[in-house]
Amino acid sequence: MLQKIYDWIDDRVDITPIWRDIADHEVPEHVNPAHHFSAFVYCFGGLTFFVVVIQILSGMFLTMYYVPDIENAWRSVHYLQTEVAHGQIVRGMHHWGASVVVVMLLLHTLRVFFQGAYKKPRELNWMVGVLLFFVILGLGFTGYLLPWDNKAFFATQVGLEIAQQVPFIGEELKTLLAGDPNIVGAQTLTRFFAIHVFFLPAALFALLAVHFILIRRQGISGPL
Amino acid sequence: MKKGKGMKFVGDSRISVERKPNKSKDYSEYPGRTEAFWPNFLLKEWLVGAVFLVGFLCLTLAHPSPLEGVADPTDAAYIPLPDWYFLFLYELLKYEFASGDWVIMGILVLPGIAFGAMFLAPFLDNGPGRRPPQRPIAVGMMLLAMVSVIWLTYTSAAAVDWESRAEANKPVHPDEQVEIDTSHEGYAVYENSCLSCHGGNLEGGAAGPALTGIEYGADEIADIAVNGIGTMPPDQFSGTDEELDQLVDFILTVNEEAN
Q: What is the DSSP annotation of A74-122?
Protein backbone atom coordinates (compact mmCIF):
# COMPACT_ATOMS: atom_id res chain seq x y z
CA MET A 1 0.00 0.00 0.00
CA LEU A 2 2.69 2.45 1.08
CA GLN A 3 4.79 1.39 -1.90
CA LYS A 4 1.83 2.11 -4.18
CA ILE A 5 1.34 5.58 -2.71
CA TYR A 6 5.06 6.22 -3.08
CA ASP A 7 5.02 5.04 -6.69
CA TRP A 8 1.95 7.15 -7.46
CA ILE A 9 3.64 10.30 -6.16
CA ASP A 10 6.99 9.37 -7.71
CA ASP A 11 5.33 8.93 -11.13
CA ARG A 12 4.15 12.50 -10.99
CA VAL A 13 6.86 14.47 -9.16
CA ASP A 14 9.92 12.23 -9.46
CA ILE A 15 10.85 12.36 -5.78
CA THR A 16 13.37 9.52 -5.85
CA PRO A 17 16.33 11.77 -6.75
CA ILE A 18 15.37 14.18 -3.96
CA TRP A 19 15.15 11.32 -1.54
CA ARG A 20 18.51 9.99 -2.71
CA ASP A 21 20.13 13.40 -2.20
CA ILE A 22 18.76 13.78 1.31
CA ALA A 23 19.13 10.37 2.86
CA ASP A 24 20.96 7.94 0.62
CA HIS A 25 24.62 8.32 1.43
CA GLU A 26 27.29 6.40 3.24
CA VAL A 27 28.62 7.46 6.62
CA PRO A 28 32.43 7.16 6.56
CA GLU A 29 34.20 5.15 9.22
CA HIS A 30 36.04 8.07 10.82
CA VAL A 31 32.85 9.91 11.83
CA ASN A 32 31.08 6.84 13.19
CA PRO A 33 31.30 6.55 17.00
CA ALA A 34 30.53 2.84 16.66
CA HIS A 35 34.02 2.38 15.19
CA HIS A 36 35.98 5.14 16.92
CA PHE A 37 34.42 6.42 20.13
CA SER A 38 36.24 9.75 19.84
CA ALA A 39 34.09 10.39 16.76
CA PHE A 40 31.33 11.53 19.14
CA VAL A 41 32.63 15.05 18.46
CA TYR A 42 30.93 14.75 15.07
CA CYS A 43 27.56 14.57 16.90
CA PHE A 44 27.73 18.19 18.06
CA GLY A 45 26.43 19.67 14.83
CA GLY A 46 23.52 17.27 14.63
CA LEU A 47 22.67 17.84 18.30
CA THR A 48 22.75 21.62 17.72
CA PHE A 49 20.18 21.13 14.99
CA PHE A 50 18.18 18.86 17.29
CA VAL A 51 18.03 21.60 19.96
CA VAL A 52 17.10 24.15 17.28
CA VAL A 53 14.17 21.89 16.36
CA ILE A 54 13.20 21.74 20.06
CA GLN A 55 13.38 25.54 20.16
CA ILE A 56 11.15 25.89 17.11
CA LEU A 57 8.55 23.45 18.44
CA SER A 58 8.49 24.78 22.01
CA GLY A 59 8.45 28.34 20.67
CA MET A 60 5.44 27.54 18.50
CA PHE A 61 3.58 26.30 21.56
CA LEU A 62 4.66 29.32 23.62
CA THR A 63 3.10 31.71 21.11
CA MET A 64 -0.26 30.04 21.78
CA TYR A 65 -0.30 31.81 25.15
CA TYR A 66 2.17 34.66 24.87
CA VAL A 67 0.80 38.18 24.31
CA PRO A 68 3.38 40.70 23.04
CA ASP A 69 2.23 43.85 24.78
CA ILE A 70 3.58 45.45 27.92
CA GLU A 71 0.37 45.08 29.93
CA ASN A 72 -0.04 41.38 29.31
CA ALA A 73 3.35 39.96 28.34
CA TRP A 74 4.48 39.26 31.91
CA ARG A 75 1.01 38.12 32.94
CA SER A 76 0.75 35.70 30.03
CA VAL A 77 4.16 34.21 30.84
CA HIS A 78 3.25 33.97 34.53
CA TYR A 79 -0.07 32.33 33.62
CA LEU A 80 1.69 29.92 31.30
CA GLN A 81 4.20 29.10 34.01
CA THR A 82 1.75 28.62 36.88
CA GLU A 83 -1.66 27.69 35.44
CA VAL A 84 -1.29 26.00 32.05
CA ALA A 85 -0.84 22.22 32.07
CA HIS A 86 2.85 21.46 31.33
CA GLY A 87 3.36 25.13 30.54
CA GLN A 88 6.32 25.22 32.89
CA ILE A 89 7.97 22.36 30.99
CA VAL A 90 7.39 23.96 27.59
CA ARG A 91 8.76 27.31 28.74
CA GLY A 92 11.58 25.51 30.57
CA MET A 93 12.55 23.71 27.37
CA HIS A 94 12.60 26.99 25.47
CA HIS A 95 14.51 28.81 28.22
CA TRP A 96 17.15 26.15 28.84
CA GLY A 97 17.23 25.20 25.16
CA ALA A 98 18.49 28.71 24.44
CA SER A 99 21.51 28.01 26.64
CA VAL A 100 22.01 24.44 25.44
CA VAL A 101 21.93 25.49 21.79
CA VAL A 102 24.69 28.03 22.47
CA VAL A 103 26.77 25.38 24.26
CA MET A 104 26.32 22.81 21.47
CA LEU A 105 27.03 25.47 18.85
CA LEU A 106 30.29 26.40 20.61
CA LEU A 107 31.34 22.75 20.77
CA HIS A 108 30.48 22.22 17.09
CA THR A 109 32.39 25.37 16.10
CA LEU A 110 35.44 24.33 18.11
CA ARG A 111 35.38 20.82 16.61
CA VAL A 112 35.33 22.23 13.08
CA PHE A 113 37.97 24.81 13.94
CA PHE A 114 40.51 22.56 15.61
CA GLN A 115 40.16 19.93 12.89
CA GLY A 116 40.77 22.59 10.26
CA ALA A 117 37.64 21.32 8.53
CA TYR A 118 36.92 24.78 7.12
CA LYS A 119 39.78 24.59 4.64
CA LYS A 120 39.27 24.35 0.91
CA PRO A 121 36.69 23.54 -0.44
CA ARG A 122 34.56 24.22 2.69
CA GLU A 123 35.27 27.94 3.25
CA LEU A 124 31.75 29.01 2.29
CA ASN A 125 30.11 26.57 4.66
CA TRP A 126 32.25 27.85 7.55
CA MET A 127 31.16 31.42 6.79
CA VAL A 128 27.51 30.38 6.63
CA GLY A 129 28.06 28.65 9.97
CA VAL A 130 29.49 31.80 11.55
CA LEU A 131 26.46 33.74 10.28
CA LEU A 132 24.24 31.08 11.88
CA PHE A 133 26.17 31.67 15.11
CA PHE A 134 25.30 35.39 14.97
CA VAL A 135 21.66 34.63 14.18
CA ILE A 136 21.45 32.31 17.20
CA LEU A 137 23.00 34.97 19.47
CA GLY A 138 20.50 37.48 18.04
CA LEU A 139 17.67 35.12 18.84
CA GLY A 140 19.00 34.85 22.40
CA PHE A 141 19.22 38.62 22.76
CA THR A 142 15.74 39.37 21.38
CA GLY A 143 14.23 36.41 23.21
CA TYR A 144 14.98 37.41 26.73
CA LEU A 145 13.12 40.72 26.51
CA LEU A 146 9.87 38.96 25.74
CA PRO A 147 8.82 37.91 29.30
CA TRP A 148 8.98 41.63 30.19
CA ASP A 149 10.38 41.09 33.66
CA ASN A 150 13.01 43.24 35.34
CA LYS A 151 15.93 41.17 34.05
CA ALA A 152 14.57 41.43 30.51
CA PHE A 153 13.90 45.12 30.66
CA PHE A 154 17.18 46.26 32.15
CA ALA A 155 19.39 43.90 30.16
CA THR A 156 17.71 45.11 26.96
CA GLN A 157 18.21 48.70 28.01
CA VAL A 158 21.92 48.02 28.44
CA GLY A 159 22.01 46.29 25.04
CA LEU A 160 20.30 49.26 23.39
CA GLU A 161 22.69 51.69 25.06
CA ILE A 162 25.57 49.70 23.62
CA ALA A 163 23.95 49.88 20.16
CA GLN A 164 23.55 53.63 20.63
CA GLN A 165 27.29 54.09 21.13
CA VAL A 166 28.13 52.74 17.69
CA PRO A 167 29.61 55.68 15.76
CA PHE A 168 27.55 57.42 13.03
CA ILE A 169 24.59 55.02 12.94
CA GLY A 170 24.16 54.49 16.70
CA GLU A 171 21.02 56.56 17.18
CA GLU A 172 19.33 55.12 14.10
CA LEU A 173 20.28 51.61 15.10
CA LYS A 174 18.78 52.08 18.54
CA THR A 175 15.60 53.59 17.10
CA LEU A 176 15.30 50.75 14.61
CA LEU A 177 15.46 48.19 17.42
CA ALA A 178 13.55 50.05 20.13
CA GLY A 179 10.98 51.86 18.01
CA ASP A 180 11.79 55.15 19.73
CA PRO A 181 14.99 57.11 20.37
CA ASN A 182 14.35 57.35 24.12
CA ILE A 183 11.65 54.98 25.32
CA VAL A 184 12.11 51.27 25.90
CA GLY A 185 8.47 50.28 25.94
CA ALA A 186 5.52 48.94 23.98
CA GLN A 187 7.17 49.49 20.59
CA THR A 188 10.37 47.82 21.72
CA LEU A 189 8.49 44.74 22.85
CA THR A 190 6.56 44.32 19.59
CA ARG A 191 9.70 44.90 17.54
CA PHE A 192 11.72 42.39 19.51
CA PHE A 193 8.81 39.95 19.20
CA ALA A 194 8.70 40.40 15.43
CA ILE A 195 12.49 40.04 15.14
CA HIS A 196 12.53 36.99 17.41
CA VAL A 197 9.58 35.19 15.82
CA PHE A 198 9.71 36.20 12.15
CA PHE A 199 12.86 37.95 10.94
CA LEU A 200 15.60 35.92 12.61
CA PRO A 201 13.90 32.50 12.16
CA ALA A 202 13.54 33.30 8.45
CA ALA A 203 17.27 34.03 8.27
CA LEU A 204 17.93 30.91 10.36
CA PHE A 205 15.99 28.62 8.00
CA ALA A 206 17.61 30.06 4.89
CA LEU A 207 21.12 29.73 6.33
CA LEU A 208 20.44 26.24 7.69
CA ALA A 209 19.24 25.15 4.25
CA VAL A 210 22.46 26.43 2.66
CA HIS A 211 24.52 24.85 5.46
CA PHE A 212 22.96 21.42 4.88
CA ILE A 213 22.95 21.58 1.08
CA LEU A 214 26.66 22.41 1.17
CA ILE A 215 27.34 19.49 3.50
CA ARG A 216 25.54 17.10 1.15
CA ARG A 217 27.37 18.56 -1.84
CA GLN A 218 30.84 18.53 -0.33
CA GLY A 219 30.56 15.59 2.01
CA ILE A 220 32.09 15.58 5.45
CA SER A 221 35.78 16.38 5.75
CA GLY A 222 38.18 13.46 5.72
CA PRO A 223 40.06 12.07 8.73
CA LEU A 224 42.98 14.12 10.04
CA MET B 1 21.50 8.77 -12.71
CA LYS B 2 20.54 10.98 -15.60
CA LYS B 3 19.96 14.57 -14.75
CA GLY B 4 18.92 17.75 -16.50
CA LYS B 5 19.45 17.65 -20.26
CA GLY B 6 19.90 13.91 -20.36
CA MET B 7 16.40 13.23 -19.11
CA LYS B 8 13.52 12.36 -21.44
CA PHE B 9 10.08 13.47 -20.38
CA VAL B 10 6.53 12.45 -21.16
CA GLY B 11 5.21 15.06 -23.60
CA ASP B 12 5.75 18.56 -22.27
CA SER B 13 5.69 17.38 -18.64
CA ARG B 14 8.65 17.00 -16.28
CA ILE B 15 7.79 13.35 -15.77
CA SER B 16 10.59 10.99 -16.73
CA VAL B 17 9.95 8.52 -19.53
CA GLU B 18 12.07 5.83 -17.94
CA ARG B 19 11.17 4.49 -14.55
CA LYS B 20 14.25 4.33 -12.40
CA PRO B 21 14.35 1.38 -10.06
CA ASN B 22 14.63 2.56 -6.44
CA LYS B 23 18.04 1.00 -5.78
CA SER B 24 20.87 2.20 -3.60
CA LYS B 25 23.99 3.66 -5.12
CA ASP B 26 27.11 1.60 -5.36
CA TYR B 27 29.35 2.64 -2.52
CA SER B 28 32.41 0.58 -3.47
CA GLU B 29 34.26 3.84 -4.16
CA TYR B 30 34.24 4.72 -0.43
CA PRO B 31 37.03 3.02 1.53
CA GLY B 32 36.84 1.82 5.11
CA ARG B 33 33.98 0.47 7.16
CA THR B 34 31.24 2.78 5.90
CA GLU B 35 27.67 2.44 6.97
CA ALA B 36 24.48 3.42 5.16
CA PHE B 37 22.99 6.61 6.58
CA TRP B 38 19.47 5.30 6.02
CA PRO B 39 18.39 3.47 8.08
CA ASN B 40 21.34 2.06 10.05
CA PHE B 41 23.23 5.17 11.07
CA LEU B 42 20.10 7.29 11.49
CA LEU B 43 18.82 4.78 14.06
CA LYS B 44 21.97 5.28 16.13
CA GLU B 45 21.69 9.04 15.81
CA TRP B 46 18.10 8.69 16.94
CA LEU B 47 19.27 6.84 20.07
CA VAL B 48 21.88 9.50 20.84
CA GLY B 49 19.17 12.12 20.39
CA ALA B 50 16.83 10.26 22.75
CA VAL B 51 19.49 10.05 25.49
CA PHE B 52 20.26 13.72 24.98
CA LEU B 53 16.56 14.60 25.19
CA VAL B 54 16.17 12.72 28.47
CA GLY B 55 19.09 14.63 29.98
CA PHE B 56 17.70 17.89 28.69
CA LEU B 57 14.24 17.19 30.13
CA CYS B 58 15.81 16.32 33.51
CA LEU B 59 17.49 19.74 33.50
CA THR B 60 14.17 21.37 32.63
CA LEU B 61 12.31 19.56 35.41
CA ALA B 62 15.00 20.13 38.03
CA HIS B 63 15.31 23.85 37.32
CA PRO B 64 12.07 25.65 36.41
CA SER B 65 12.81 28.57 34.14
CA PRO B 66 13.22 31.78 36.13
CA LEU B 67 10.81 34.70 35.97
CA GLU B 68 11.45 37.93 37.85
CA GLY B 69 8.95 40.61 38.80
CA VAL B 70 7.16 42.50 36.05
CA ALA B 71 9.41 45.15 34.44
CA ASP B 72 9.49 48.34 36.49
CA PRO B 73 11.39 51.09 34.60
CA THR B 74 11.40 53.26 37.74
CA ASP B 75 13.34 50.68 39.77
CA ALA B 76 16.67 52.51 39.96
CA ALA B 77 18.20 49.97 42.34
CA TYR B 78 18.04 47.09 39.87
CA ILE B 79 21.45 45.92 38.67
CA PRO B 80 21.13 44.74 35.06
CA LEU B 81 22.77 41.48 34.05
CA PRO B 82 22.59 39.78 30.65
CA ASP B 83 22.29 36.07 29.98
CA TRP B 84 25.46 34.11 30.64
CA TYR B 85 26.49 33.92 26.99
CA PHE B 86 26.71 37.72 26.78
CA LEU B 87 28.52 38.12 30.12
CA PHE B 88 31.98 38.19 28.50
CA LEU B 89 31.03 41.21 26.36
CA TYR B 90 29.44 42.87 29.37
CA GLU B 91 32.55 42.30 31.48
CA LEU B 92 34.84 43.55 28.71
CA LEU B 93 33.10 46.94 28.88
CA LYS B 94 34.23 47.32 32.51
CA TYR B 95 37.91 47.51 31.56
CA GLU B 96 39.41 50.97 31.29
CA PHE B 97 40.65 50.47 27.75
CA ALA B 98 37.14 49.44 26.66
CA SER B 99 34.94 51.97 28.41
CA GLY B 100 34.45 55.70 28.73
CA ASP B 101 36.30 57.44 25.92
CA TRP B 102 37.51 54.08 24.67
CA VAL B 103 34.08 52.44 24.54
CA ILE B 104 34.44 51.99 20.76
CA MET B 105 37.22 49.51 21.57
CA GLY B 106 34.89 47.52 23.79
CA ILE B 107 31.78 47.51 21.62
CA LEU B 108 33.24 47.45 18.11
CA VAL B 109 36.98 47.04 17.69
CA LEU B 110 37.80 44.10 19.96
CA PRO B 111 34.64 42.02 19.29
CA GLY B 112 34.88 43.04 15.62
CA ILE B 113 38.44 41.77 15.32
CA ALA B 114 37.63 38.55 17.15
CA PHE B 115 34.43 37.68 15.30
CA GLY B 116 35.70 39.09 12.00
CA ALA B 117 38.77 36.88 12.22
CA MET B 118 36.52 33.93 13.01
CA PHE B 119 34.33 34.72 10.01
CA LEU B 120 37.33 34.95 7.72
CA ALA B 121 39.30 32.11 9.32
CA PRO B 122 39.50 30.00 6.11
CA PHE B 123 41.26 32.87 4.31
CA LEU B 124 43.53 33.91 7.18
CA ASP B 125 44.56 30.32 7.84
CA ASN B 126 44.86 29.21 4.21
CA GLY B 127 47.70 26.70 4.34
CA PRO B 128 47.08 23.13 3.22
CA GLY B 129 47.68 21.46 6.61
CA ARG B 130 44.65 20.61 8.73
CA ARG B 131 46.30 19.23 11.86
CA PRO B 132 46.57 21.73 14.75
CA PRO B 133 50.42 21.52 14.94
CA GLN B 134 50.57 22.51 11.26
CA ARG B 135 48.80 25.82 11.92
CA PRO B 136 50.10 27.08 15.27
CA ILE B 137 48.99 30.70 14.78
CA ALA B 138 45.34 29.94 14.08
CA VAL B 139 45.13 27.39 16.89
CA GLY B 140 47.00 29.70 19.27
CA MET B 141 44.65 32.59 18.53
CA MET B 142 41.60 30.42 19.10
CA LEU B 143 43.00 29.12 22.40
CA LEU B 144 43.74 32.70 23.45
CA ALA B 145 40.18 33.73 22.55
CA MET B 146 38.74 30.77 24.46
CA VAL B 147 40.78 31.54 27.58
CA SER B 148 39.79 35.24 27.42
CA VAL B 149 36.09 34.49 27.01
CA ILE B 150 36.11 31.91 29.79
CA TRP B 151 38.05 34.25 32.08
CA LEU B 152 35.76 37.23 31.37
CA THR B 153 32.64 35.12 31.90
CA TYR B 154 34.07 33.69 35.13
CA THR B 155 35.05 37.04 36.65
CA SER B 156 31.67 38.49 35.72
CA ALA B 157 29.69 35.57 37.16
CA ALA B 158 31.85 35.25 40.30
CA ALA B 159 31.06 38.84 41.31
CA VAL B 160 27.30 38.16 41.41
CA ASP B 161 25.53 36.83 44.49
CA TRP B 162 23.04 34.70 42.56
CA GLU B 163 21.03 33.53 45.57
CA SER B 164 20.30 36.94 47.05
CA ARG B 165 19.61 38.18 43.53
CA ALA B 166 17.00 35.50 43.00
CA GLU B 167 15.59 36.19 46.46
CA ALA B 168 15.26 39.93 45.83
CA ASN B 169 13.64 39.47 42.41
CA LYS B 170 10.90 36.99 43.17
CA PRO B 171 7.94 37.53 40.87
CA VAL B 172 5.04 39.38 42.48
CA HIS B 173 1.89 39.41 40.41
CA PRO B 174 0.87 43.02 39.73
CA ASP B 175 -2.67 42.24 40.93
CA GLU B 176 -1.32 41.04 44.26
CA GLN B 177 0.83 44.04 45.01
CA VAL B 178 -0.24 45.77 48.19
CA GLU B 179 -2.04 49.05 47.99
CA ILE B 180 0.11 51.73 49.59
CA ASP B 181 -1.84 54.46 51.33
CA THR B 182 0.44 57.42 50.61
CA SER B 183 -1.82 59.73 52.62
CA HIS B 184 -1.03 57.76 55.80
CA GLU B 185 0.91 59.97 58.17
CA GLY B 186 3.60 57.29 58.54
CA TYR B 187 4.24 57.15 54.77
CA ALA B 188 6.25 60.39 54.80
CA VAL B 189 8.46 58.94 57.53
CA TYR B 190 8.82 55.69 55.56
CA GLU B 191 9.70 57.68 52.45
CA ASN B 192 12.47 59.52 54.28
CA SER B 193 14.06 56.69 56.21
CA CYS B 194 13.25 53.35 54.60
CA LEU B 195 12.13 53.68 50.97
CA SER B 196 15.58 53.77 49.39
CA CYS B 197 16.30 50.21 50.51
CA HIS B 198 12.87 48.64 51.02
CA GLY B 199 11.21 50.09 47.91
CA GLY B 200 8.17 52.25 47.22
CA ASN B 201 5.75 49.37 47.72
CA LEU B 202 7.60 47.75 50.64
CA GLU B 203 8.55 45.09 48.13
CA GLY B 204 12.23 45.15 49.08
CA GLY B 205 15.20 45.48 46.78
CA ALA B 206 18.88 44.68 46.41
CA ALA B 207 19.75 46.35 49.73
CA GLY B 208 16.80 45.32 51.92
CA PRO B 209 14.15 42.61 52.17
CA ALA B 210 10.41 43.06 51.60
CA LEU B 211 8.50 44.51 54.54
CA THR B 212 5.27 42.77 53.62
CA GLY B 213 4.41 39.46 55.23
CA ILE B 214 6.68 40.09 58.22
CA GLU B 215 5.92 38.56 61.60
CA TYR B 216 7.27 41.26 63.91
CA GLY B 217 5.17 43.11 66.46
CA ALA B 218 5.05 46.89 66.89
CA ASP B 219 7.85 47.02 69.48
CA GLU B 220 10.13 44.84 67.39
CA ILE B 221 9.61 46.94 64.27
CA ALA B 222 10.42 50.11 66.23
CA ASP B 223 13.53 48.43 67.64
CA ILE B 224 14.74 47.30 64.18
CA ALA B 225 14.17 50.75 62.70
CA VAL B 226 16.35 52.31 65.37
CA ASN B 227 18.93 49.61 66.12
CA GLY B 228 19.09 47.67 62.85
CA ILE B 229 19.09 43.90 62.39
CA GLY B 230 21.36 41.50 60.49
CA THR B 231 23.15 43.50 57.80
CA MET B 232 20.90 46.51 58.36
CA PRO B 233 22.92 49.18 60.20
CA PRO B 234 21.49 51.05 63.21
CA ASP B 235 20.14 54.60 63.14
CA GLN B 236 18.42 54.25 59.78
CA PHE B 237 15.47 55.96 61.39
CA SER B 238 16.11 59.44 62.76
CA GLY B 239 13.18 61.38 64.08
CA THR B 240 10.91 61.88 67.02
CA ASP B 241 9.20 59.13 68.99
CA GLU B 242 5.90 60.26 67.53
CA GLU B 243 7.17 59.74 64.01
CA LEU B 244 8.46 56.32 65.00
CA ASP B 245 4.99 55.39 66.18
CA GLN B 246 3.50 56.60 62.90
CA LEU B 247 6.05 54.57 60.91
CA VAL B 248 5.34 51.39 62.86
CA ASP B 249 1.61 51.94 62.46
CA PHE B 250 2.06 52.44 58.71
CA ILE B 251 4.06 49.22 58.24
CA LEU B 252 1.61 47.24 60.35
CA THR B 253 -1.38 48.66 58.44
CA VAL B 254 0.09 47.66 55.08
CA ASN B 255 0.76 44.17 56.45
CA GLU B 256 -2.77 43.81 57.73
CA GLU B 257 -4.16 44.80 54.36
CA ALA B 258 -1.84 42.40 52.60
CA ASN B 259 -3.19 39.56 54.71
A: HHHHHHHHHTSTTHHHHHHHHHHHHHHHHHHHHHHHHHHHHTTTTSTT-
